[in-house]
From TrEMBL:
Protein name: LPXTG-motif cell wall anchor domain-containing protein
Parts of the chain that traverse the membrane: 393-413
GO cellular component assignments: extracellular region
Principal location class: secreted
Gene Ontology terms: biological process: carbohydrate metabolic process
SUPFAM superfamilies attached to this UniProt entry: Hypothetical protein PA1324
Signal peptide positions on this chain: 1-24
Domain of life: Bacteria
Keyword Zinc found: no
Presence of keyword NADP: no
Compartment annotation: Secreted
Domain Gram-positive cocci surface proteins LPxTG: 385-418
Keywords: Cell wall, Membrane, Peptidoglycan-anchor, Secreted, Signal, Transmembrane, Transmembrane helix
Amino acid sequence: MRNTFAVAATAALVLAATGAPALAQDETISITGRVFLDHNGNGTFDAGDGVRVGGPGVRITDEDGRTTDLPVGPSGRYRVQKLLKSTYKVETLDVVNYTTTKSSYTTSETVTDGDFALVGQVAKGIAYVDANGDGTKQADEKPVTEGLRVTGNTKDGSPVDMTRTAGADGAYRFDLPLGDYTLTAPLLNNENLVLGKPAAATDIDWATGTRKLTGQTEQVDLRYITAAANITVRGSLVPAKDTYLVGEEITAKVQLVNTGNAPVMPTIGLGQFHAKVLRHSDNLEAESGTQFELEHRIVPGATEEIELTFTPTGTIFTAFELVVFDPMRALKDVDTTDNLLLISTKVVEKGAETTAPTTSTTTTAAPATTTTTQAVAQAGNKSGLASTGASPLGFLALGALLLAAGTSAFFLARRRRS
């Protein structure tokens, strides 16, 4: 166990020998300094730098090896006075979560500038609404007013959860200890704003709205645009038949095409569903037996494939109906006419089947740039997106649109009650 010598901000050391005469002024020294966050890395405390508050502080060791640890005050300063004139080693204890070019110094004289410049991790950038879509912040383009968030852990394992708001110029900055962090963009769907397609390497991922911070100083820009969200649904039934049997396994293969400008993650529902879902693709999460949610966003121009395998429970099953509802997490859907996939079917009891093959009717979908085929999971494991389609028969067109609106309203009301 180490010996400690008594020291305080304003207290004098007392000589060990009882009754010894008071020390002369030239027989004592004082040590003063600051522990600060060196934001510009120049080693000098100047405008824009921060102070280190609440850290492990500073340690002073005398010639006999006796030590004491000093806390750092609210201004980042430490101070000890009236030390017996001798040689002392002064060192910062902040060597795990920060780097520094000077971690200690030795003195036998009074010190008034015993500063320690700490360098941690910085995340900075601009967060704004790109009104003209050119990828560059203009003077009249407004900043994002919601807070950006950084979460993670410092190198010594301490948790970090910080929020910063961009200034009037859109600029923001996080000054962090060294560690493992993720920056998350605020969700602005209620303002009908979404992250735009990255125009530079510094732009945050528009699909996830996050960036893993890996550099000691990292630029991360958040560029929002006005959303014009839309999902188009198409699909077919496999096997494709005129007539199915009660209890027969049928798989709906559905394509969800993002034909808007916003990454979206809608919820889907199965309407008038006189059947039982047996399993669904891995990219879906089941919220109920007839309601599902996609696990991730679909970026504009991309197609997400989902699968639902089911079996009709009776001959009353006359159509496979899949509808998008609560489609864009509060974003405005610019075209609600393509949110329904309706495939008419005929189901009979065993012994009354017709076997002539046919092609299931699907909706017309906009072209997609990418397609992802998902593995199939057991029903109730995961959730997914909805698809859009049109009635296979001309005379059902108007009815399908009305049905889509009614079913969507039903599911949304149900979701809000839950």
